[in-house]
Amino acid sequence: AQSVTQPDIHITVSEGASLELRCNYSYGATPYLFWYVQSPGQGLQLLLKYFSGDTLVQGIKGFEAEFKRSQSSFNLRKPSVHWSDAAEYFCAVGTNTGTASKLTFGTGTRLQVTL
Amino acid sequence: GAGVSQSPSNKVTEKGKDVELRCDPISGHTALYWYRQRLGQGLEFLIYFQGNSAPDKSGLPSDRFSAERTGESVSTLTIQRTQQEDSAVYLCASSQESRLAGANEQFFGPGTRLTVL
Fold first, then answer.
1. Structural domain span for residue B48
2. How far does the CA of residue B21 sit from the closest CA of chain A (Å)?
3. Could you read off the pLDDT of A34-48 as tens digits, one per residue?
4. Between chains, do B50 and A99 touch, taking CB under 8 Å as contact?
């Protein structure tokens, strides 16, 4: 069965500093990988996704993520964090099971940004 | 257009009562998903509807949980005889049909916060 691990429960960075959120997955086939952000009181919003091709994917709000098959990782990065980036970030793997489809989420990383 | 909507936004109920949670997906989206998010935890898949196919109920935690969907529109998640452990945010998502079903972007609603006293 597939699984997603986000080893960092809580990260604090200063505004303007760089950010990297870690994500490791376990899945037997080529994964479809996603990063979602959940701001307080709001629903989940897709930041970016990887299906195939270029292993470095660009997303919204200046985020990017790199798929590394050898490390089973899909880490999220941003070169300069803004205070509005404070939120909970979820990595997910999408899988097919016949006609079924589901996302398996990690437990999330809560990002705090200090001014 | 409108996004995924859910109602109610908050629900407080007493242990043992039944509750119904509603989800209105984005128009034209054939797939609909329910997830549960307990405090401080990730999202837990509950159930998935895709068109006229039999739903994938593999994530439902017990027979107290059930869900229905009318065609390709509204879905209702019902929890019978609620327990305190059912307290969580219940999220609904919808997506378009695609040949690569596992690669579909899911659009999430704001969730229903359920509190069982």
1. 5-98
2. 16
3. 999 998 877 899 999
4. yes
pLDDT (mean) for A57-74 = 95
Query: In a mutagenesis test of the A interface, which of B106, B107, B113 is the best target, namely the one with the most A β-carbons within 10 Å?
Result: B106
Q: Is residue B26 part of a domain?
A: yes
The angle subtended at Cα A104 by Cα A101 and Cα A105, nearest 5°, is: 145
Report the CATH number at residue B61: 2.60.40.10
- Considering its fold, how many domains does chain B have in total? 1
Q: Are B93 and B36 in contact (CB under 8 A)?
A: no
What number of C-beta contacts closer than 8 Å exist between A and B? 73
Look at residue A100 in the predicted model and tell me its pLDDT.
47
AA identity, residue B40: G
| Strand-strand pairing, B65-69 and B31-37 | unpaired
In chain A, what are the domains?
A: 3-114 (2.60.40.10)
